[in-house]
């Protein structure tokens, strides 16, 4: 996605905030996106990364280990780090919407699908 953080945050907000139930607030002094009070995406501004909730991180990491990876901190959690410099906008959008679906209630998913 190789872009500045302002453009990246605009992309994140444009993708996530229209989804039912999504809120943005700070998490350890960095922007994060929640649904049902559950974090689904946490931006790491200094490192130009985003930590995303995912149930398929092995698939993504196998496809591109430079872009998709974990550190020891995330080993026991269902999160994956995504390098903003190298992720494609299409992949990032897919991951963000999937993270939302993984955390949203069936009611919220139904609202989204009715649009």
TrEMBL record:
SUPFAM superfamilies: YjbR-like (SSF142906). This is MmcQ/YjbR family DNA-binding protein. The lineage of its organism: Bacteria, Pseudomonadati, Bacteroidota, Sphingobacteriia, Sphingobacteriales. It comes from the Bacteria.
